[in-house]
UniProtKB/TrEMBL annotation:
PROSITE patterns: AMP_BINDING. Residues 16-351 form the AMP-dependent synthetase/ligase domain. InterPro entries: AMP-bd_C, AMP-bd_C_sf, AMP-binding_CS, AMP-dep_synth/lig_dom, ANL_N_sf. This is AMP-binding protein. It comes from Actinophytocola gossypii. It comes from the Bacteria. SUPFAM superfamilies: Acetyl-CoA synthetase-like (SSF56801). Residues 475-504 are annotated as: Disordered. Coiled coil: none annotated. Residues 408-484 form the AMP-binding enzyme C-terminal domain.
Amino acid sequence: MADLLPAPGFHEAFLAQVDTRPNDVALVWHRQETTYRELYEMASKAGAQLVGLDLGPDEPVGVLAKKSPAAVALVLACLLAGRRFLLPSPALAERTLTTLFARADCRYALVPDSDPIPIPPASGPPALRVVDQTDVSFMLTTSGSTGLPKIVPLSQSGVDRFVAWAADAFDIGPGRSVLNYAPLNFDLCLLDVWTTLAHGGRVVMIDPAYAANGYHLLDQLTRHEVHVVQAVPMFYSLLIYGVVTRDPERVFPSVEHVMSTGDAIPDCTLEQLPALFPSARLHSIYGCTETNDSFVHEVDRDTAGKSGPIPLGVPVSGSKAEIVGADGAVLDGSGMGELYVSTPFQTTGYLSRPDQDHRFVPHPHGWDDRRYFRTGDLVRRDDNGRMFLVGRSDFQVKVRGVAVNTAEVERVLLDHPEVDEAAVVATPDDLAGSVLRCVVRRTPGSRLNSLTLRGHCAKNLPQAAIPTVLRIGDEPLPKTPTGKVDRNAVSFPDVSPTARGRVS
């Protein structure tokens, strides 16, 4: 496909909506509606925080905010002021947040309706800069499954191109309502929130506190006549198994586009989507924080959930992809290898992480001048040219749409002074994608309990990486002939609903 043409800037596009439709609803939060004029006024008020700080012309700020209209206004204030900002998950441990803000050179973290928080400078040598930041707006973070989350700076021009593509691909514009399920720090919000606001639509925001409440999700979809839904598979599973199975006649006829992203959707869930959304086109989207959406596959409504694995689909407009074998050669036909992707929206590299430069590479054979991102995903291409995800080239899995590395979870557990051995495995789950099961051997004489160990995990891991089911014991874990813990021989706790969150 041809490269995308230059897109109008978000700044100008949003202000045009304020000028032309000031009284249209921009945000819906529970039963509270915020118009475009009101959102602009909120952003102007939030922007006063920026004016009152002694910031240099190119100095970034941190934004520490749970999703809410005030949080959207605060991010909007940064965008309208042309101020770079780091937007991490507020669920990260305080120590991790402080480190991330410092590494991004943020002296202040902005908080909705509160005073800015001073950030102490990073300890040690100055952080290295490995990307050009002159065009950067959003700075998002990866999940941190392999340690400290990586900072992903996105260019404003790349965001503008994405916003233009998404609006056209999914009919987002005036009079359209788009459901926003993801937390504000997720890259999914580039479509749910920022594309919608740039094109005059209405964002129906789901409060994270109610994200697992199927009845609340049903109420929001019904009450606000949503047209576009993008969410991780857990959202659809919650709707189906939490509510709709008790009301088989329930449908959502207003929805015209349904997108599943972040993880593979279970066949049993996918099979029920055509009946649940009788007017919708069904899409499976593949992407990552570093590249944003890369592939889109439109699912056949007649065979949804009945025709085997879903292919990746076709690259989005302006994107290219290659499959690279273990020998470093690009595969021409069928076969399996690592997926390399290049999109018009991608970052040029991680901030302050030269050790990760190997993830951003030129074309393996020099066939074009693009930079490609090594996704770490193993894919298989069949004789018909369709590509399918096979797995990860490491220990990474998805939990509620968040990438988690089981080896890193084990490392954190072993960092506790009263843990001698640890084993973690991921088990498929219809709701969460995967759940983590863990067995720990504590040190002799220790009285380590689950409350203490979960507190240790909470300080050092993102929420999704904390094991769902945990067993603490005193017996040695089984070993392989080389002396390593044999996960295949470990007896892990079950993951039945009554066992979740329990220790033995």
